[in-house]
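User: I've been going back and forth on whether these two constructs are worth ordering. Before I decide, could you fold them both?

Assistant: Sure. I'll take them in the order you sent them. The first construct and its structure tokens:
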Amino acid sequence: MRKIILIISAIMLLTNMGMYAKYNIETNATQTKTELIKKTPTVTTKPATTAKTPAEISTKKQEEKSSIETEKAQRVTEQKEQANQQAAFVERIKELIEEVDLVSNDVKSIRTQLLIAEIVAGLAIVLALCAVVILINEKKKFRDKLIRELNDCWEGGRMDNFARRVAEKAKSASSSSSSSIAYQPAKINQGELKSMIDDYLTTKLEQEEKQQEIKLEEQRIFQQNQPKKLFADSIVENHFNKISENADDDTVFELYLKKETDLKAEFTIYENAKRRVLKNADFIDGCDKQKINSNPIDLQIEKGTAILQDGKWQISQKAKVKFV
């Protein structure tokens, strides 16, 4: 579209320039012819007694000169008007080109938006189809699992309410029929089937809850038998202050329990706190301190013990720390 408009504009511009050139040629020819006519002396047959005076000749020359200047001014004015028209035409072409660019950009933007909308719609359709497929697969899995569990109950002799009721229904239907008549499957109405399924699901949920409780209890017992670490920031009045299960920047002591339920723990200086203790021994007040080197670079630690009393870890044996 833009190329077509540019071609039409170029044709119009060339046409106007051709017309302007033709007009200039015709104007110049007319002016030249007029000047030649004016310059050509006219032969008069007037008698010698009617000769013009010098004043008349001067006046006539001035009139001719004034006429020539007027024509020149008119030609200059016409040329300026034509130049202005051409400039205005060129500006109009530029405006048309800009409008075409804007329209083209709008079209591109609309196309992009439509493409995005189509992509989003396609993704929504794909997601919907995936959801349907997943739902169908889950339904099939549940059905297969239900059938497997029923088979396992039957083969293993673990008849729950659901299987027992179905068996009783089949037994009652078969016993009521004559031995000479072929066996017909028992017919179960929708209400009975729903009741059976509810009983079965209730039984399965109870079994799963019991299994979950057993697993949680096993995990709790296992956790209680696992070693555990506690952390403290200081010893105040022969017990640890601010006990926590996680170390932080203020941690100075580390307590070690062989089992989570133990009431006795060994303690030592937390590894990341040793530099602070080397600089300032006051951090380990409550321990037996021995300074062997005036400028110590390491610590020799003999672990202490603590016991849990009244919710506080009391120091039962102080740790011994040598600054070496």
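The second construct, handled the same way:
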Amino acid sequence: METTIRGYEMDDQAVVAEAIKGGQSIWLSPKAERGGWHKDLIGGKAVRGAKAQAILKDQAQAMENWIIPAIEKADQEEEAIEEFQEEIKLGTDHLPIEDEQAKAIVETENQQTETQIMTDRLAVHLVQRPKGAKTVTINCCDCGAERIIKVQDKFQVTRCVDCQKKFRNRRRAERRREKRAEAKAQEQQQN
């Protein structure tokens, strides 16, 4: 029984995780323990004999047909995201982006190096979606800088990324000061 398929072992964590995503309820370790028992890596049970051999054969076919291609596709997507993030840092001259909306966003981001025009999460989302996403440009209520957001967030986003960070930090500091003042007042009342 072949336990390594295209460089992946049957008991690799990524393979088992993909099997669980695919709805597998049992996934045996190819290494038999004492007495020929194969441990189930999902449920913890042990199986041996002809039943175990049949399950291992089905696992090998599942790995070949859909588990390893799914893992490789996920790896390619991660590499594409990393390359895109590196290209954003280098500039738009070498960008392999074919979507004009994404190119325009990156060019705008490079022009405004002082402030971040969109969140990293939105940039990744635009790259992953072939059609892009519906976006809107707003002006920050504090500094007036432009920020690109999704249409669905327009009713709640009012600041650019940098101003929002400063706003949250100020609000946190204010709450800490209020708590300290309340603690001092309670301490004085107890004395």
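Notes on the second construct follow. The beta strands are 4-5, 8-9, 38-39, 46-47, 135-139, 146-150. DSSP finds five helices and six strands in the chain.
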